[in-house]
Amino acid sequence: MSRSGADEHYINRALAEARKGLGRTSPNPAVGAVLVREGRIVAGGYHRGAGEAHAEVDCLRKVRSAAGATLYVTLEPCSTEGRTPPCVEYIIERGVRRVVIGTIDPNPQHRGRGVELLRASGIEVAAGILEERCASLNEAFNKWIVTGQPFVIAKCAMSLDGRLTRPPGESQWLSSAAARQHARALRSRVDAILVGAETIRRDDPRLTARDRQARRQPWRVVLSRSGRLPRKAKVFSDAHKERTLVYRGQSLRHVLDALGKREVLSVLIEGGGEVLSEALDQRLIDSFRIYLTPLLTGGNVLAFGGKGVASTAEALRLSQVEYERIGNDICVSARAQR
Questions:
Q1: Which residue from 67, 113, 158, 258 has the fewest beta carbons nearer than 10 Å?
Q2: Catalytic residue positions?
Q3: What is the tens place of the pLDDT at every residue in 40-77?
Q4: What are phi and psi of 142, to 5 degrees?
């Protein structure tokens, strides 16, 4: 295996470590690392949560000696002290010979500094290995650390004619049980779930992560013009009621600003149509997860209505579009193209 091929192979292994921490590290990124000596992985590690050891430290602590070895890490090692000491210092102390980095720290205040310090100490550094793959792992962190804004995912289940319409008194779901289970997996990986007041009044959802391994429940965020909400609703009366926030009479953009200041890195908008439409009109959505169910409901409850665009040229373009069949439903995942 060539050196470049080996670097990609081991960064992929570091990515596998990083994924173990997904949904658990906010407001920190998910990071993984592996230590390699003579073509063999001798240790692996990942970041488990804010305040706990970073991936590099978690990995290096598992070996007596790292002298002469190569450390593969998905994100540039930190160079400043935060909740934990800087990883760069520990890497230097342990005698690592070479460091291979997936992607550079997106924080403008720290970007590239870890690489400079490692090289200044005599350590060989290679960066940008599987860069896009490593960066996409932390797309929410990357946006928030640069802009202060959370990464916004719009999720809904709609009929083939783009409706959320259901007759009063019927089940709150259009999609199948399998599709709903698939959708709920997102909840354990975001910091907040946002809905409009009408969704609370009509559906009384729990908006919780059902994953038994979920480290913590996401914030439940409710937007209301009037503030008149049923106090017996599950989000106000269940065991996680302290995780519910109500914003009255505020625009969605203002609410997202406020959530960013709370170190909320990712927000999942689950409805209803009015909130989804506002998010689309204002171009606040970064990612879409749409479940298409084989029904034609008609009616006036559109998933994405709003003001619309003046011309097709102004329409929001999507990229990285993926289609997955789940029973009779189709899950469409895509990124907003900026």
A1: 67
A2: 56
A3: 999 999 999 989 999 999 999 999 999 999 999 999 99
A4: -60, -40
